[in-house]
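Bench notes, afternoon.
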Amino acid sequence: MLRPWQTQFWLEASPGKTFHAKLLGKLIADIKSGRLAVNSMLPGSRSLAKQLGVNRKTVQQVYEELESQGWLITKPRCGTFIADIIPEEDLSDENKQLISNAKKNKLTTVLVENLYKEALSTSNNSIVMNDGIPDTRLIPYEILSRAYRRACINLSRHSNLGYGDPRGIKELRDSIQKMLSEDRFMTCSSEQICVVRGSQMGIYLASRVLDPNKGAIIMEEMCYLPAQAAFESNGFKIVKCKLDQHGLNIVALKALLAQYEVAGIYITPHHQYPTTVCMPVDRRLELLKLSKQHQFVIIEDDYDHEFHYETNPIPPLASLPNSENVVHIGSMSKVFAPGLRLGYISADQAFIERAAQEIVLIDRQGNTITEHVLSELMESGEVKRHIRKTRKQYEARRDFAANEFGRVFGSEVSFNLPTGGMALWIDITKLVKGKKIASLPNKDSTLSTQYNDSLSETTHIRFGFGAITTTEITKSIEELSVMLKI
């Protein structure tokens, strides 16, 4: 197999009087530092001797000595590799200093550590936790691939793959502006839109732009914990507000506003995450009045606006009267797939410019090719066509999942059929009464305790139906029945 890179060695700074000693010390130092990773393959003795301009026998002697000490292992007809377990040796003063410096890193929170571990486990195995994610099997791969090919050809021909606007390419911001105006009743210009890499980045940018010295962030008591982690990481105090059958409880909110200085409220009004409740118009209007009265920002996470099944969806907060303080965040992750990493923020121009300044510090700009692809698909009507097609499929899966819960569990569970989204919020109080449930070995079901870091007792599960077929829904619900009825 052809190696992608040839490992290079610089021996001038290596201690030792002889070449043998220099190479020996250098290899040990590179293994300790991690430059030569465990199980990685070293250059062949002939290749390394040629690179360093020495006799091959000298390299062979060094390899043999390191193998006898336990640093290397030789695999017949394969080569020489760094051992999986390297010898324990006392740390040098230099390495002790490196460890000492590592302790100066800013500490993280338990929540962030848990989210990171979750992300690693998702990427390292094929089991993806499904709490309402889209079905990547429904992605129009052929349409996407053709659009990517056209974008690559056009951009290379016109030499347009250099640095660009940190807010996103003008074409995509114009396409998003049309969608927000025509489909969501929002009045905004392309200058009030910033393209981001998914809604989580939009939330994080909001946490960077807002000032923690101006007050706390209020969040729903059951909420999207990565959003909470973003605000906490930037110094905000988090205050939780009660929910009821219509979403955020306005009476409870007023009590909190009387008690705390508040910089902003993070909310998921379209389909409350995780309970799936849709906030009614009268409550939205009251929330907007409170925002103007108390001068706090509303961060509206409209993560799955496209998938609403009952009549027409209620207009976003950002489209209603008194919405001057609303930061509207949307995502294309539910439309296509989380891996596409495209979302947007719509807010007043000053907020957008501050967000763009933060982007310059993070990664300068987004993915120009992907932004051109999405803009083309939006303008050609392919995005709307895909949404219309998948919306019918997700609605059918919702109805099927609801019927299956009734068939399998009967009156032992209860739920309200959500008006949209890709998950059901199932009350399992009758089944778990007196039981301690720490986790469920079911990838499509998430315990209610996972959405509130202060909850100790499970009352509900969030069942994701969007990413699985009807056959898979039946199997998952029947497996869940066995787990819960033990």
